[in-house]
Amino acid sequence: RRTYSHLRRPDSERPSFGIAFDIDGVILRGRTPIGGSPQALRRLYDADGSLKVPFLFLTNGGGVPETKRALELSELLKVQISALQVVQGHSPFRRLVSSRFENELIVAIGKGEPAAVMLEYGFKKVLSIDDYASYFNDIDPLSQYKSWGLKHSYERNYNSKGLQPKYDVYSERVKGAFVVSDPVDWGRDIQVLCDILRCGGLPGKENGHQPPLFFAADDLEYQAVFPSERLGMGAFRIGLESIYNSIHSSPLEYTSFGKPNPFVFKNAESILTKLVTHVCQVKETMMGEKCAFNTIYMIGDNPKVDINGAKKVGHPWFSILTRTGVFRGKDNHEQYPADLVVDTVGDAIDFILKKEC
Ligand code: G3P
Ligand code: MG
User: Fold this and answer.
1) Phi and psi (nearest 5°) for 40?
2) Nearest-atom index, ligand 1, CA of 23
3) Amino acid 202: pLDDT
4) Residue of 8, 52, 30, 26 lying closest to 353 (CA atoms)
5) What ipTM was predicted for this assembly?
6) Are the beta carbons of 302 and 272 closer than 8 angstroms?
7) Which ligand is nearest to the CA of 26?
8) For residue 89, which atom of ligand 1 is closest to its CA?
């Protein structure tokens, strides 16, 4: 059960602004806080630990359920963060459950726990691509050269006959493929996805209609621990698309979520509005779907993704670009200029609190 007790405060103190933080390259690099992020976030809470400024994390990353990510972030950043405050690239997948996919076999791809993410969203028949691939002998002709083994998986069933698929993957078509987080074994994943997609969801069988394919985000590059940017999900998408289109007569069809799509920012607005109802005990019905803020600050490191997205939506978004991630320029970004450029997230919070309080 979710609790929001740390968010409660009187209606009279309802804040007129909210904040959306990018994670990679703004708050963290890998698992290390950067730019004074723990101290900056602490300033958004009262001394008793209750939230005074509605904020959320708006990341294109993911790989674990929002509940788990909230716990991880709370631990790393030393403030109490609820699952409602964590919007990941794959969070919109939750809305796809109903009717189309709920009871259909789907495959989840990416680092972390992609199948657990989809199960938490309500999908009932989910296999990770690791598990799915393991049921097809020789589907990856290079597996014998790979030094890593597959880790545990709760979807696996072993009995006296060996590995038994949880679902009848040899006759039941995969009805959807969801790239939840950055794929780990690109070669194997591209191979298996091409099999699923061009054979209508039944690898090794004759060609069939392509099942729907979804990507949580489309970041070409992002800032991780290594000094220069790393290839992201968008790079994987380009690889898959280019190969698929070279071996198949009709082009790959897919849908990508994540920033800079305007709906991600609109969704963040409504979550921040919900947070205000928790923070201030105002009645949700009074606020309806209307945005409650004069300004929502987007603090990001990626001009093409974070700043571009906020700009596309316009009011009430105000974009702040930091120099701790993808962007390192001295002046503003030329193609996607932010409303403000600062060195760190700490500087961004200084600016916001001076302006608003
Ligand atoms: O894989 C993570 C990456 O694509 C970007 O994360 O937090 O910078 O949106 P973020
Ligand atoms: Mg980033």
Assistant:
1) -60, -45
2) 7
3) 96
4) 52
5) 0.98
6) no
7) 2
8) 9
